[in-house]
User: Which sequence fits this backbone?
């Protein structure tokens, strides 16, 4: 995250120099950009969970409406020392689940009807423990901040390119900056969004490994989660409520057919390869 922040600041600084701002003004422009990013982070911090639930069409679950699920979540929360999160269900037969919420006190865990009907109790406990680990590890907050930074960099890159093409005449008249810095900024505007996205996806994959491990520490049953991941991944029905903006939240990528293989293609996946996750879980036995 520190490296990502430095990367974002550096990109803004290069853009400012590329437009010919002198050093003090470039630093001031960078500071203003970071303040804007901070405001976007605050909005995301408080409202990202509500937006995700609304997009997914999730409905709340109470003790009366689904006693078995409610008690499964409650028991694992007691074991983990976590407050009980709000529980939601998506009416979709594709098996999957995700967690959201800015902290453990505002946690949300959401299941599809498909995952509740297709997994047995041990497998479902593994999934619940995985999602509770996301909440406990504050992965939702981390992913929200990273998503805002990625969007911020993409927005600045797009702004720079537009200013380059449509404001070229003014730039030629008023720019006292170095052509080298402008060329560097132009390259950064093209490559920075891609690099930022790759960093975001790498963070997402590492947090999935951590949630798998933390979930097994909670249930003491790596085979339950491994079996659940195999079943969910093997189900070829796409999840209609999911999209590219929310896919990284789910325990298995819900966009079926997007699980690319190979080292280079794997850089663009939101989740680690299933075989690597199962291998890590099997290594936890005993």
Assistant:
């Amino acid at each position: 995250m520190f490296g990502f922040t430095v990367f974002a600041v550096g990109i803004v600084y290069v853009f400012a120099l590329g437009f010919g701002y002198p050093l003090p003004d470039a630093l001031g422009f960078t500071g203003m950009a970071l303040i804007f990013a901070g405001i976007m982070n605050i909005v995301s911090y408080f409202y990202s969970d509500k937006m995700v639930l609304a997009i997914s069409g999730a409905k709340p679950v109470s003790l009366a409406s689904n006693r078995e699920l409610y008690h499964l979540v409650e028991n694992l929360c007691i074991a983990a020392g976590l407050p009980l999160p709000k529980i939601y269900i998506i009416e979709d037969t594709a098996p999957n689940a995700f967690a959201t919420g800015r902290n453990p006190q505002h946690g949300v865990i959401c299941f599809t009807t498909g995952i509740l009907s297709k997994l047995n109790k041990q497998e479902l406990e593994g999934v619940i423990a995985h999602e509770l680990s996301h909440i406990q590890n504050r992965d939702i907050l981390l992913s929200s901040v990273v998503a805002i930074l990625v969007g911020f960099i993409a927005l600045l890159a797009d702004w720079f390119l537009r200013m380059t093409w449509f404001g070229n005449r003014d730039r030629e008249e008023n720019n006292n900056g170095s052509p080298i810095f402008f060329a560097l900024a132009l390259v950064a505007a093209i490559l920075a969004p891609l690099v930022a996205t790759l960093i975001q996806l790498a963070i997402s994959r590492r947090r999935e490994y951590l949630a798998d491990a933390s979930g097994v520490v909670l249930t003491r049953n790596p085979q339950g989660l491994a079996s659940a991941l195999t079943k969910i991944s093997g189900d070829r029905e796409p999840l209609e409520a999911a999209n590219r903006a929310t896919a990284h939240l789910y325990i298995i990528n819900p966009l079926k057919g997007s699980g690319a293989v190979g080292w280079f293609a794997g850089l663009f996946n939101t989740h680690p390869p299933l075989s690597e996750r199962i291998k890590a879980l099997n290594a936890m036995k005993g």
About this structure: The beta strands are 59-60, 86-90, 97-100, 108-112. The domain at 57-138+202-282 is CATH 3.30.2010.10 (Zincin-like).
